Amino acid sequence: xxxxxxxxxxxxxxxxxxxxxxxxxxxxxxxxxxxxxxxxxxxxxxxxxxxxxxxxxxxxxxxxxxxxxxxxxxxxxxxxxxxxxxxxxxxxxxxxxxxxxxxxxxxxxxxxxxxxxxxxxxxxxxxxxxxxxxxxxxxxxxxxxxxxxxxxxxxxxxxxxxxxxxxxxxxxxxxxxxxxxxxxxxxxxxxxxxxxxxxxxxxxxxxxxxxxxxxxxxxxxxxxxxx
Length: 227
Fold this sequence. Notes:
Elements: H1 2-8, H2 11-26, H3 35-41, H4 43-49, E1 55-56, E2 62-63, H5 72-84, E3 87-88, H6 90-97, H7 101-113, H8 132-140, H9 144-147, H10 167-177, E4 186-187, H11 190-196, H12 201-212
Antiparallel strand pairs: 1-2, 3-4
Helix pairs in contact: 3-7, 5-6, 5-7, 10-12
């Protein structure tokens, strides 16, 4: 209990620990990625991620995340986490379980560039400042220390872009890091789990709501029938 309390009071130290882990990851050889192959493998993805504002209904109700324009390294790591059970979601676990490491690398490469040629780049100008109470929460969580400038330029591609992501998805993801003992909901990540336990659910929601308003690189490329 004493050790857990120290973690909850030391957001900057947690960020430094994350950097050390990333340095180790970066020293490992990267798997070759083939975006063209990823496009051919994406049929199982577009039924949800190719429909604007598509909403899942199990195990919780929220919009599926925007992934076009997300960092390839993060997408591949997320799929691996679903496959290993570090992220609990029955549908995503089943899909990820059918993928090889090469499949994950190819899909990640495809979605990182998906539709970027037709999307206007996000301006580098700073977005509107958050309300003081939300700013205090973001500072307490040291969110920018990993997710970067305007929460759209992570310090390493292993971290997600979160600016402009759907608010209800962000809120569900944050809650999942603080959930244990549920066979269908939960995320096993020591750093994020310690972070979210500092906050009330109302505070997590306030941060998610603000982050969703920010300009970001992520988007949905609709299926032809939805254009």
